[in-house]
Amino acid sequence: MISAATFHVITTELVVGMFSLAGIAYLLLVLDKKREISDIIAHFSMLGGLVFLPPAILFGIYADPAEQISNELLANKVLLSFSALGLSLGVLINRWLNKGPISGWLHPSIGMVSCGMILLVASLGGMYARGESLLFFLPKDIVLIFPIWASAILLAMGITMVSKSTIEHRRS
Amino acid sequence: MRIRLVAVLLILIFSASLTPMTSAKSGGEGDDIRSMQCGGSCHSDPALNATSAATISIEQPSSNWAGLLTTVTVNITDFPESETRIVGVFLLINDQGAKDTPQYDGWTIVADPNGGVVNYIETRVANGEDSISVTWTLKAPNSAGSYDLLASIQHGGSGNSASIHGNSLPISFEILEPPEDLPRLASDFIPPSTRSLNQATIITLQTEDVTDYIVEMRVPGAQSVILEVVDGSFTIPSAINPGSIEWRATLSGVGPDQQTPWFTLIAVEEGWQADRLELYLQSFALMFLLLGLVLVSNRKQGAEKIDLVGTLGLPESNTNQQPILPLQATENPTVGVIPVVSTVPQVPSEGLPEGWTMEQWQHFGEQYLQGGFR
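The joint structure predicted for all components is written out below.
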């Protein structure tokens, strides 16, 4: 039987490849170069990466079935993956709601940050599996785990913001 | 533009040169139950292999009774130069690369040298040393007979070398049925293999055909001391630093006295741990929070567009209190139309550029008029 770790590798490679392409396209958008084509490439490749991101996260979780997570790199991978998922979803929803290219540097910059997070997750994976990474200088063993009540408050704030934004969009 | 392109290419080439072109997993694979050479992974490719200069030997089991605990020690000497000094050690029953773990012959791994229960462990050869010994505690197969054991190692070399590995010569030995009245540890007794720092360990021996026993404890390589046994239990003092101690029991009964193998108890510093629920809840919280912030940032941008209406002469308070556009559209349709018209550049008299839609003109018309597409 093919293990979850193998599926994790397959899906993460798809995610990283598509997000890398998206990141370059967002960089061009920030630099205001080739806006028309960059806009299409950035959002479609991010959408492609986003399709494979949840399976990559799930297979990664199944690959390490221990009750406790005992490695800081793994914890950072999970936190960064979900953060990137949130940012990417936001970028794509905004683009979809706008029904056209979004002017300014903020939107592509958020897209770039999201792509950077995914590449950082990939780097953490390399550090975890092989003990080496090009981003060796980053402090990857620092993890901030909030208490459950703090996470619950943040979750409530996030859901409120998403709901409010949805209601406002429907009204307009 | 060309200078930038050259700079980007140089950075990419420089980055590529930083990537080690190694075929071995220099950080190790992690302890696990593994067949030799990872059962057909990259390490079994002859083009990526080299033979280790180390000398590997495996000692005879400390006792040969079927179904009872025993220890097997692997000695590695003349360990060659290695960048990471990590060495992976396999305990195997043959060198076939498949169905070669001790479990296939009925062995049960009670404790590996790192305190786990696997046949492949990774350890580090100390700087300045060129030898290392590792010991497995095993429960022998229940059936008497002839058995083989073999040790295999893999490690990296200096620089970006290939995977280096080597095997010991196999040892053969007989496993015997124990006499009925042989003083022994109970078949379900599992000696503890790890413990936390600053925590004394109380062990209660479970035995069969035993009337009395004494327990010795030692730091590896040092003189042993006798531990006091009270009500069938003895206490191993707490450790203040990570490390290992060994203990064994001499069992007396009707049959001949028996000595258990030296059992290793490893004191480990409790590592970092996170609860999955806490981690996943925080992950979802961050996801929704960032999603919400991005969506809100877009709404704010939208609000700025509405504020443009205010600059056209509408009272500012209205923009905050109620939806502007529908209200203005009903009271004064021309005002409602102004923002839309003012954002779209005027279409040239010769019409839209060839192949363009009105939507594209809306977004890129201004750029076209400024010569951006010529």
